[in-house]
Each structure stands twice: as structure tokens, then as C-alpha cells.
Amino acid sequence: MLAGVDRRSAVLGASIAYGVAGSTLLSPGATLAAAGTVTDARIPGFKLANGETIPTMALNTAGLSADAAEAATRQAVSLGVKHIDFHPGIERDGVARVLKEKGRDALFLTTKIRKYKDEPADPAAAAARATSQIADDFAVLGVKNVDVLLLRDSPSCKVMQAQWSVLEEALASGKARSIGVINYCEKALSCLLETASVTPTVNYFMLHAGMGPNAHGLRSFGEQRGIKTFAYGPLGEPGPAEELLQSPLLRRIGDAHNRSPAQVALRWVAQTGAALSVRPTAAFGLGKSVCEGPECRMGLVERVQTFDWKLAPQEMSEIDAMTSPDGNPTLFSSPGCKGCFGCA
Q1: Which pLDDT does position 334 carry in this prediction?
Q2: Quick one: pLDDT at residue 339?
Q3: Fewer CB under 10 Å: which end of the chain, C or N?
Q4: What's the rounded mean pLDDT across residues 212-230?
Q5: In terms of Cα–Cα distance, which of 186, 176, 192, 152 is closest to 8?
């Protein structure tokens, strides 16, 4: 278990962790689709409490180089996945290349404010930095707005509150259609809600089979307050969970549907009613991800197929009951949320 890890601080020098033999874990049906039979992803919409709708599945570009982020984005768009979930910096630069060619309407953009770590905490400086980052990101992207803007947590409650005010201003001015948070445990959410004028539309945290559909209570805590669940790590984080991808239960269920264990894991998250952000393949690790050659497209095809089938109620119940591999939903949160599994 890695608690309190900042994935952006680990990009340089991080070694890649592959899935089972680096495979994209495609089922026979997915392999056929990768040959060119998938042309329309038909990604369903995911309605937020503010009335906005986001595509239920997003491409997660975390850890990709600029070139790989560009390649993955192009492949995703060609398969009907227009929701791109990226960090500021290298990944953003690859997405910007696609925007320049295809135009703003081609992509649904979700991005994040960098974590503020300065000590001693200075709420005014943190707010100013968030404002500056928005301007810088928009200039590089060549856009006037993004669809979803997410705020990372901080060890300082006052910093989170000050930066949230910046996001509220971005929402009011049309620079963002929706605003939310990333890796907020109950303690962090409670802090933010003390002064927030606008409730976050989503909390973006890790959720995969083995953690339970309620993510140790964090999900119900947010959803009871109108904060929808946007899940990353459906195959595990910071690398793919081999135990999950080799699960006898997921394999048995997958065999019954001509699907891989990975596809079952993705379908479970979606069928619990969460939106999800997916890596292009199972070849990723802390601060590192890969999109190369035909394997990248094949992996994306497998993910696209999340929405053309369903798990039976009994199968959902069996996966709901899994207790391993477990995980902290706010794995990449600040020290104040370390190891708390979403608890206050």
C-alpha cells in the first residue's frame, strides 16, 4: 500500500510496472473488434447534480509522454471516446496538439489544479497559483474553457478553501462547466463544504473490485451530499493489480460472457453507477504509462466494450463481496488523509 503518494512527483525515474506479461488482456471478441469492427463507442452520459452531463468513460493519460498522450487521445477519439482526463504539464501538451488540429468541440476536457505543498501554508498564495495555472493551461491548450476542473487536496484546510473559491470563480465566469475534487477523504470534503458556495459535482478517487462498491464509506459520504463518484484505477493503482487481473472469480464470470477479467473489472465499476477513467492498456506504473503500436488501440477497444454488455445481478453481488485486492480510495491524497480509507 502506498499512502499519500503524489503521482506527479514520481514521474521522473519511476519504473514501469506491467500487467500480466504486459498484456492488454483481450478476450477473443475484443481481438476481433480491434481489427476494425468497433466504430462507435456509444459511451453513455453521466448526469451530475448541477444538471451537466459528462461522458461516463474517460481516457486517463496519467504518466504518458506528450507524444503518447497525443497518440492515445487520437486513438480514443477514433473509437468514440472524446472525454480526455489529463494532468497539467506533459500530458496536457500532447492533448493540446490534438485540440489544435481537431478543434475544441472534438474533446471533452477534464483536468486538475496542481497540489499546493508549500510550507508554511499560504492560502492567498495558493489561490493565486491556481488562478495562474488556469491561465497558463488555457493558453497552451488554446481554449477558453474546460468541461471539468478538479481540485487536489492539501494538508491545509484553509488552502483547500481558498483554492476552491478560485474554482467557483472559474465556474461562474464560464471557464469550467463543472468543478469537483480529486482524492478527497471525508475529512477533506468536510473542510471544503464548511465554506463552499458550490458543492463539488464529483469526487475523483480510486475504485476497483475488492474495495467494495462503497469504497470504505467514502462513496456514500459524498453521494449523500450530491457529489457523484468519478473512479480511477479500475484495474488497480499505482500499477495494475495482478491479483485482480488473475482473479478466478472474474475469469469465471468473464468466460461466461466471452470477456477478459479486465473487462469484467471495468464493467463492475461502471455498473455500480460510477463514471470511470481508464488507462489505454495494462502497461502502467507509478508515474508511467504506455501507448505504443497496435497494443494501445487494442487496449482502448477493450475498454470501449465496457458498455455493450451487462453483468447479471448475481455476478454483481459476487464481485461486490470481494475483499481483496483492497485499497485506499484516496491513495494519492495529502498526509492528513493518509491511510484513513476515506474516514474522518
Answers
A1: 82
A2: 52
A3: N
A4: 97
A5: 152
Least confident of 246-250, 290-294, 314-318: 290-294
Q: pLDDT for 89-118, tens place per residue? A: 999 999 999 999 999 999 999 999 999 989
What mean pLDDT is predicted for residues 175-202?
A: 97
SS3 assignment for the chain: CCCCCCHHHHCCCCCCCCCHHHCCCCCHHHHHHHHHHCCCCCCCEEECCCCCEEECEEEECCCCCHHHHHHHHHHHHHCCCCEEECCCCHHHHHHHHHHHHHCHHHCEEEEEECCCCCCCCCHHHHHHHHHHHHHHHHHHHCCCCEEEEEEECCCCHHHHHHHHHHHHHHHHCCCEEEEEEECCCHHHHHHHHHHCCCCCCEEEEECCCCCCCCHHHHHHHHHCCCCEEEEECCCCCCCCCHHHHCCHHHHHHHHHHCCCHHHHHHHHHHHCCCEEEECCCCCEECCEECCCHHHHHHHHHHHHHHHCCCCCHHHHHHHHCCCCCCCCCCCCCCHHHCCCCCCC
The structural architecture, per CATH, of the domain 7-337 is: Alpha-Beta Barrel (3.20)
Reported as a pLDDT band with limits 50, 70 and 90, residue 41 is low
pTM of the predicted model, to two decimals?
0.89
